[in-house]
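Teaching assistant's notes for section 4

Start the section by putting this record on the projector. Ask students to predict, before seeing the second block, whether NCS2 family permease will look compact or extended. Collect guesses on the board.
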Amino acid sequence: MSSSAPAVIARRTEVLAGISTFLATMYIIVVNPSILSQAGLPFSGVLTATVLLSFFCSLMMGLYARNPIVVAPGMGLNAFFTFTAVKGMGLRPEVALGAVFWAGVLFLLLSMLNVRSAIVRIIPLPIRYAVSAGIGLFVTLIGFENAKFIIANPATLVGVAHLTDPIILTFILGLLLTSVLVVRDVPGGIIIGIIVTTLMAWPIGRYWGDASAVNFGQKTLVNFQGVWAAPDFSLIGKLDLKSSLTWALWPVIFAFAFTDLFDSLSTFVGVAEAGGIQDADGQPRNLNRSLLTDAVSTTIAGVLGTSPGTAYIESAVGIAQGGRTGLTAIVAGCCFLPFLFLSPLLSVIPSIATAPALVLVGAFMMKPVTRIDWGHLEDALPAFLSLVLIPFTYSITQGLIWGFLSWTVIKVAVGKSRELPIGLWIVDAFCVLALFGGH
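Reveal the predicted structure now:
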């Protein structure tokens, strides 16, 4: 009896770690549909796709890769889908979903051929760090914009809204509350902030009638018919595979695949170091299987009807709680499943309630920028261009392109062209084609 006690305690620790990881990542159930619905996809359909992807791929990560890491639609990647691919390039959402699928296939091939080490050598580390932070700024900008805190200004391009506006005040209160919850390490702090901000926003829709800020207006949250419904499978199989597999769309497929790959690699490395889950060579445990799982999640995402899936850095929350095995990911994945039937309830959450989560997620993504050597200008300047051009141009692709090209030009100018791998020259050629290909 006593001999089995450690095993029971270990399993209980893994289960609790899985629940903690879910609480840290469940904001994506609301935030992902909130972003992708702006691309013309139905909120309930994206919510269903988000839950299914998070459930199945987290299970695969736990059972196949045996790592305590949750997989779900990636922040930044969903912004790229909506604001660059669909709104920026004018793609139909179905075509963008097709691009997600082909990006997953490309990622899958790269993972199966085990070329990750070559890819890591090709892409300069400062560019990788800068792109991650740049996406964080991009996501933050979207959060402020969704809350109508940052508005257009003819004189200065952008400006700040009047702070006396009830919508802005609600957003500020929600942002401060969510920040305090996160700083105090309250489990599920982000989702608690979303719920409380939603409740604070209810009087705006009821008494001010601002339907643009509050989705539910005069509706009540106590209507049972309004919180429970069958899943919306309308987006499954809606991707346009033929139209998305064209030369003109290679930059989109490239950006999806490689941004996902860089994000996954950095997540696996960071989580492995934090939790001590490394192999004998000091590499993240079962890295190939983990990357293969990540690639499968992106491929499936296009079929289900959402942006690419990726490993979540919030998995570190569960690892901090003692999660070390795949059971943590399995438990977290199963926690997503009940929300398959709650799309009507979750669809009433207004944009000003998810905006604080976007702002804070952007802050979480800024950490890699500290790894850039800002005193070494030949590395720092290309990284800086990637960092600022992503939010300033509203395009992750532009940040990647100018980061690669400026890195190459500066290295050649200082006489270090021999340090540039052949693969980077190939990437540069694609970047030039993208610039003059009507992106």
